[in-house]
Amino acid sequence: MILLADDEPAFQRLTGAWLRGLGHQVEVAGDGDAARAAFAAKPADLVLLDLAMPPHHDPEAGLALIPAFTPAPVVVMTGHADHALALKAIEAGAWDFLAKPVDPDLLRVVVARALERARLAREVATLKAQAGGDEDMGLVGTSPAMAALRALIRRVAPTRLPALVLGPSGTGKELVARAIHAASPRATRPLVPIHCGAVPAELLESELFGHLKGSFTGATTDRPGLIETANGGTLFLDEIGEMPAAMQVKLLRFLADGSYQPVGARAPRMADVRIVAATHRDLPAAVAEGSFREDLFYRLKGIVLRTPSLDERASDVPLLSSMFLRRTSEGRASFTPDALDWVAERRWPGNVRELRAAVECAAALAIPGAAGLMVGAADLAFAVGDLPSEPASSVFKTLDEEVAALERRRILEALGRTGHNHTHTARELGLSRVGLLKKMDRMGLR
Ligand SMILES: Nc1ncnc2c1ncn2[C@@H]1O[C@H](COP(=O)(O)OP(=O)(O)OP(=O)(O)O)[C@@H](O)[C@H]1O
Ligand SMILES: [Mg+2]
User: Fold this and answer.
1) How many helices (H) and strands (E) does the chain have?
2) Class assignment of domain 2-126?
3) pLDDT in tens, 275-333
4) 83, 114, 122, 326: least surrounded by Cβ within 10 Å?
5) What separation in Å is there between the alpha carbon of 156 and the centre of ligand 1?
6) Which residue puts its alpha carbon closest to atom 15 of ligand 1?
């Protein structure tokens, strides 16, 4: 679709007819604001922009409009072969320019070329998204549960359907939302996240829909909402379960027909935004108890994607751990074999987020040894606080108990650093190997 922005009715009619005759769909706008609104409601593939339009007939104002049409190519039409202005327009991001009166044959060629470029840009974006393969997604894991999730992401991404990502805390819901956007034809447009629970209820409406100057105390200028920012792209509504009831109604309307009303605006506006929502809450239960609108729930759950808990994909734990260690140490640290056993055996109720924090913390605490930075089971156990460090009643500890606790901690730390090498640990602590093993037996560390 071509957006023709020009204020002269005769030019609109003739050029519009010529372009339609060539098989193009044409939408017409008579001034800058109308052009911007039309594009916001339905992004055109190409914009033909007259630089001198009402109300100011000022070419500079026309130039300032050009970025509003990204990523569509803009062909500017300048009054009387004004070359300096044409140059400025190209500098401002225009794709080409035409001098008025416009030569119809030149128009045909320029339009064809610009549309071809727009098509190529879309194709590159799609190919990029596909070629990224799996790495693309930032989602690590080879378990069947993850393979199924990836396959579903790939199927959902090209559609416009709203997607609802459900799953326990820390299982990668946000990564899934990003993966859907990245693999979609909208990948070159913005992905705009908002955490519905983190924005105070009374600000959420203006945050999402924007507001007009003077619509409430403190609204000193017009401000676009996140929906407008996300136009052509994806809006990620994180923690949708926390959305206040009053906003649920307004969101429902937007989902139903793409219209929304900025705070203080008289008329609704349109935006083309794909919605991906996520929550760790049990939404059907919230619906049943009446805290979440049923109609909104059904609108949102165009497609439901479930992120598996780490328990359901235990086979991914070593892979994830190694990846996090590599990332946090920039490839400088490695695990001792017992560390990988330890992570695989432990349960991770906080899921991937907890695992990641444990690995990063252990890597930060580990002390480099002769073999480089080795992260051992003891480092990890220490990092997650599985080791009884200081009992709460420490004030009442006897001297013997305190010495024993200190001894235990020194031994565990040294074991972690040496990767459970008993000889090195003993040497580091100034003990004989046999002496160390005896102590470890006594402490139940073997
Ligand atoms: N499959 C995965 N591969 C790599 N990293 C992951 C994966 N899943 C989760 N993570 C990492 O785990 C952490 C938590 O992920 P994320 O924030 O997406 O969780 P969430 O499901 O949105 O949790 P919450 O419900 O608490 O918001 C992030 O640091 C993320 O990068
Ligand atoms: Mg999250």
Assistant:
1) 19, 16
2) alpha beta
3) 999 999 999 999 999 999 999 999 998 899 999 999 999 999 999 999 999 989 888 89
4) 83
5) 20
6) 172
